[in-house]
Design a protein that fits this description.
Elements: H1 19-24, E1 29-33, E2 36-41, E3 44-49, H2 56-61, H3 68-76, H4 83-89, H5 95-114, E4 120-125, E5 137-138, H6 139-156, H7 181-188, H8 196-203, H9 207-219, E6 235-236, E7 243-244, H10 257-272
Antiparallel strand pairs: 1-2, 1-4, 2-3, 3-5, 6-7
Helix pairs in contact: 5-6, 6-9, 8-9
């Protein structure tokens, strides 16, 4: 839904500038990455989107804050960037509500666009996001938060293959921790077909928050940890430009001694908290 107003990026695929470089140049436009797009204005990040992360429209409508009709009205009445401003000026949202939801969507999508496995492909000068200005964030803060989120997931359960594979239920050990209400909602949608991104969209929750729940559920033995595919190569998701790693066969149980060791390490770490 982005409206790119600038000329095509001056750098080709695989040769895109880094976010740090663009911030130093106080650039305005869209940084095109393998798994998403980061929008800048005068070197500051104003929005981000990724096919993996639910957009602000999903967070507001599926989350129940706005109806789908209200959202469509806002989009239909806005010519050019400024959907967010229309929602506030028309009384649909308060400034605080828009800012909180916007920042949540920004950091969520930026994690996937800038995180491991993704990289810059090019830059489109002058491109502006359809939401319009809300609250810019420093590029250093975005990169710092992206790294922090990656470390957090690894600390919870260092098996990134669970982030993209279909979520498969397994019979937990009786000694496994009880699930929370949030985690139960995730488990209710785990049918061996839906991926974490699918579940996040269905629940109207940020994708990263859903990954936290799924990594914890995997660490506790409530969902499968698929076997890594060392020989797999990434494929492009049609139409999205995102890198999609082939998932395991649903129902596969990763039961080699490495998982037992990880669980013992997790238990030891939890005992010190």
């Amino acid at each position: 839904m982005a409206r790119h107003n600038g000329r095509p990026g001056h750098r080709g695929s695989g040769d895109g500038p880094s976010l740090t470089e663009l911030a130093g140049e106080q650039a305005s436009g869209a940084l095109l990455c393998d798994a998403g797009t980061v929008y800048l204005s005068r070197g500051r990040v104003v929005h981000a989107e990724s096919p993996v992360a639910p957009g602000i429209d999903v967070l507001l409508t599926t989350g129940g804050r706005l109806t789908a009709d209200t959202w469509r009205e806002a989009v239909g009445r806005t010519d050019g960037p400024g959907v967010g401003r229309f929602l506030v000026d028309s009384g649909r949202l308060s400034d605080a509500e828009l800012e909180i939801c916007h920042l949540g969507a920004l950091f969520d999508a930026a994690y996937f666009a800038l995180g491991t496995g993704s990289g810059p492909r090019g830059f489109q000068p002058g491109a502006a996001h359809w939401l319009g200005p809300v609250r810019p964030v420093g590029a250093d803060a975005v990169e710092r938060e992206t790294r922090r989120r990656g470390r957090l997931l690894d600390d919870l359960w260092p098996c990134p293959q669970v982030d993209t594979a279909p979520v498969v239920l397994r019979r937990p050990d009786p000694r496994s921790p009880a699930v929370t209400r949030r985690q139960r909602a995730v488990l209710e949608l785990a049918d061996g077909v839906r991926t974490p991104a699918d579940i996040a969209r269905a629940l109207g929750r940020p994708a990263f928050h859903t990954l936290i729940d799924i990594r914890r559920l995997a660490a506790a033995g409530h969902v499968d940890t698929p076997r890594p595919q060392a020989t797999a190569s990434p494929a492009r998701s049609p139409g999205s430009g995102a890198v999609v790693w082939p998932g395991p066969v649903p129902g596969t149980v990763f039961a080699d001694p490495g998982i037992d060791l990880l669980r013992r390490l997790r238990d030891a770490l939890e005992a010190t908290l």
